[in-house]
TrEMBL record:
This is Uncharacterized protein. It comes from the Eukaryota.
Amino acid sequence: MRPQTSCYVFFLLHLENYYVKWVLKNAISLTFLSFFSLASMHDMSGRFV
């Protein structure tokens, strides 16, 4: 395995770890936002139909 590849893999793992922490931290707000956007989309589709 070349040093470049291992460095790239390490970077990916670090990025994934950071992403998981961010998602866990913002899980509540993300859930609320997705629910709100789904509700608004449903409302709009209901209006169009």
